[in-house]
Write a sequence for this structure.
């Protein structure tokens, strides 16, 4: 594990662009995340928040700009070229992601969902993986549900399994892509509680969310995105209570109304 | 009407020739099962090759697509004739003995050479059909599954092997069984190569005794196997539909959500 980059940023995005055909989704995103920092990314739908996360772990390789993780530029070679998977390997070993739709493997039990990555990718012994997975599932409150298949679990439970699955790979950073948006309101808290605990343990997290309360309480930095760029960023108190930019004010006005 | 009874349903002949016909049918069953297994495997290989990612593998994809298109478009009988003719000639002095006899005129596992020509032809043809079925299954696995697998650090190959293909295969068992029924019926074509299958035996009886009862018994034996298989397919499809009607079980999940609330009385969503 190499240390943080010279400028102190653990993860740095520099002028990142992403297009889908003619649609220019990210138009030069700059962002810095320090080690142990929780960054909440907010903004209207279509502003590019999810695309940004998917760029960070190269699920959607950016066309332009640099993504520097732990001092290594992931975009130094072209990450779109499938033959060159060096950047992809580097980032996927260090950055986990939790999806809005959970994306659990439906043919595997909760426990197997968590052990699959460490076993197949990290080549760890299956007994060791199982022990660790049991501990992780216990930690997210699902010790009783280890042998259930995903379709026997509620949305909140599935999402907690997904978090355990990401944690099993010992990530340095976890990306959360609107992880509570697909949940019934009464199930949101159990997932946010797990995330709060992770944050308090010093996990580096980039969280795309509509949960302003969570952002205010847990984030060290709030990033407001609109139209494919970062409009404003700073401490939650500054961005959420005293936004400088007109666009941020308008968005917060709409979101906080109800 | 008497003619029909005598020609098709002469139980005397059926009884006398029962052993011979069963021997022919046993050949058919062995050929069907072995070719079914090899077609399933070959089809999966083709389907996976067809789904390889990246620019570098594009030629492999094109070749695979070309292969599938060609073999889905050629009559099996033609393939059988080309395979048997080619292999037997190439391994004989006329063909210059380009390939060794054990390969050109195989008699592995105590089976006859036409049996192996049948296995080979059925595999390359039905592999192409089954590849398309697998492809539909692979494409029916939600994209989020591949993303989740890749984001855990799996390579494309690992993601296919541990995540995508196991789910795809479950979805395509009914259509694959349908293909197996078709394959089993198509094994009858090997009779033109002189393979002693149930049709070959039936025809022999027909020409010896000017009576179709042997063929009729063969037809009955086919139906005895294929109808239960068809019912099994229907049952599997119905079960799958029941599952998807629950929409991947949100109804159940909702119940569980309520339990999770502790009592859950009166919670409606």
């Amino acid at each position: 594990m190499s240390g943080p980059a010279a400028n102190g940023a653990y993860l740095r995005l520099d002028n990142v662009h992403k297009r889908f055909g003619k649609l220019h989704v990210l138009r030069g995103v700059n962002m810095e995340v320090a080690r142990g920092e929780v960054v909440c990314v907010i903004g209207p739908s279509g502003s590019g928040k999810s695309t940004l996360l998917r760029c960070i772990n190269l699920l959607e390789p950016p066309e332009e700009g640099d993504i520097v993780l732990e001092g290594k530029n992931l975009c130094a070679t072209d990450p779109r070229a499938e033959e060159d998977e060096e950047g992809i390997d580097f980032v996927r070993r260090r950055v986990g992601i939790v999806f809005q739709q959970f994306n659990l493997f439906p043919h595997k039990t909760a426990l197997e969902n968590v052990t699959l990555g460490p076993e197949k990718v990290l080549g760890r012994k299956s007994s060791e993986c199982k022990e660790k997975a049991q501990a992780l599932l216990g930690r997210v409150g699902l010790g009783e549900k280890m042998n259930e298949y995903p379709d026997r679990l509620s949305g909140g439970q599935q999402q907690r399994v997904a978090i355990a699955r990401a944690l099993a790979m010992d990530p340095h950073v976890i990306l959360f892509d609107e992880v509570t948006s697909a949940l019934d309101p009464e199930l949101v808290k159990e997932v946010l509680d797990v995330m709060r605990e992770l944050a308090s343990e010093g996990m580096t997290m980039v969280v795309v969310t509509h949960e302003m309360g969570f952002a205010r309480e847990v984030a060290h930095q709030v990033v407001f995105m609109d139209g494919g760029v970062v409009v404003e960023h700073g401490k939650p108190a500054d961005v959420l209570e005293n936004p400088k930019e007109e666009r941020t004010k308008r968005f917060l006005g709409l979101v906080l109304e109800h | 009407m008497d003619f029909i009874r005598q020609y098709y349903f002469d139980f005397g002949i059926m009884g006398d020739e029962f052993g011979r016909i069963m021997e022919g049918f046993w050949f058919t069953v062995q050929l069907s099962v072995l070719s079914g297994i090899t077609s399933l495997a070959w089809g999966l290989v083709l389907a996976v090759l067809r789904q390889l990612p990246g620019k570098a593998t594009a030629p492999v994809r094109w070749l695979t697509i070309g292969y599938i298109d060609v073999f889905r478009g050629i009559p099996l009988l033609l393939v059988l004739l080309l395979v048997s003719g080619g292999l037997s000639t190439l391994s004989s002095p006329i063909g210059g003995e380009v390939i060794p006899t054990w390969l050109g005129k195989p008699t592995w596992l105590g089976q006859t050479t036409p049996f192996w020509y049948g296995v080979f032809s059925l595999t390359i043809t039905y592999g192409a059909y089954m590849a398309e079925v697998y492809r539909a299954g692979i494409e029916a696995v939600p994209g989020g599954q591949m993303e989740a697998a890749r984001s855990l650090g799996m390579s494309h190959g690992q993601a296919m092997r541990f995540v995508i293909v196991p789910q795809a295969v479950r979805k395509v068992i009914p259509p694959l069984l349908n293909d197996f029924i078709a394959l089993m019926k198509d094994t009858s074509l090997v009779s033109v190569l002189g393979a002693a299958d149930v049709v070959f035996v039936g025809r022999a009886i027909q020409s010896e005794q000017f009576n179709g009862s042997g063929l009729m018994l063969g037809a009955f034996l086919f139906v005895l196997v294929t109808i239960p298989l068809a019912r099994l397919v229907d049952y599997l499809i119905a079960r799958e539909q029941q599952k998807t009607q629950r929409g991947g079980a949100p109804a159940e999940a909702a119940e569980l959500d309520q339990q999770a609330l502790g009592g859950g009385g009166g919670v409606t969503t």
Observations:
- Residues 185-200 of chain A form the longest helix (16 residues).
- Chain A is about 35% helix and 25% strand.
- The beta strands of chain A are 11-20, 23-33, 38-42, 64-69, 72-73, 95-98, 173-177, 204-208, 221-226, 229-234.
- Chain A touches chain B through 37 residues (CB under 8 Å).
